[in-house]
Amino acid sequence: GSIHKKGEWRDHVTEGAGTFGLNHVMSLFNAATVDPDTGALDKLALRNKAIACVMIVIGGHPIDLWKMTEEEFEDRPNHEDRHNVHRPKMIFRGHHNKVHGLAVSNVIGCGCREAHDPENPLCLYNVVKAYTVVKDADDFLFLTARTGHCVAKLGAKQWKKHMTEDNELKPTSFFRSYRHDTNKYVHSRCGDQQIRDVFKYWNERLDWDLEVAQAAMARKTFATMGDRFFGFPWREMMKVTHHQTETMFKKYIVEA
User: Fold this and answer.
1) What would the pLDDT profile of 175-194 be if each residue is shown by its tens digit?
2) How far is the C-alpha of 148 from the C-alpha of 203, rounded, in Å?
3) pTM reported for the whole predicted model
4) Is 199 helix (H, G, I), strand (E, B) or coil?
5) β-pairing, 184-189 with 176-179?
6) Burial (Cβ within 10 Å: 0-12, 13-18, ≥19) of residue 245
């Protein structure tokens, strides 16, 4: 389906969605992406974990993630905060998904209590970094391999799609499609429906037993936690969620 849903569908999803509980969020961050028996990396789980965690923690709309590109991405692994504490972060720059031409940015920050701990599973930076490392490794194989799905086997039309005139890979979408047959992230955009369905994936995999698990619930979790638990000003949160009116934003705060 189109990334731009009809108004009636958006209203239906918004009214019907609740929030994820703390147990759901904690189990998501702690979800294993490596098979305990074989030690093999589950790349689909790795990508879906990064997408789901980002949507909950920064209140991202599926459109925001769908539009995130490598060209507008910056990783600052050595960043220090105002107190000179190591706090790595990633910055995604782009444009507002509803206000044409309005430049915005989303920051994926360190979630550690003190200085950054690269082994902390509850740190959002670590979750997204793990996906980034594997994605970049698959890009390198796509560029240098001589067998399987690789640049060397591309036709002229596909070559222009993926390669620059300097024989470098063109920057593409940050969140990628995954191919089961090759067990690799491909050099193309993850579909909007794949992004919207990540919570259905985790609902089944983590045995949440939720009747519904929608992307809209991630934004409602962000808005509700920000308002009820952290006491963030709703006007500031609206800048993050890209809601245009107070009325629409407050529909995302659930009495819970």
Assistant:
1) 999 999 889 999 999 999 99
2) 33
3) 0.88
4) helix
5) antiparallel
6) exposed
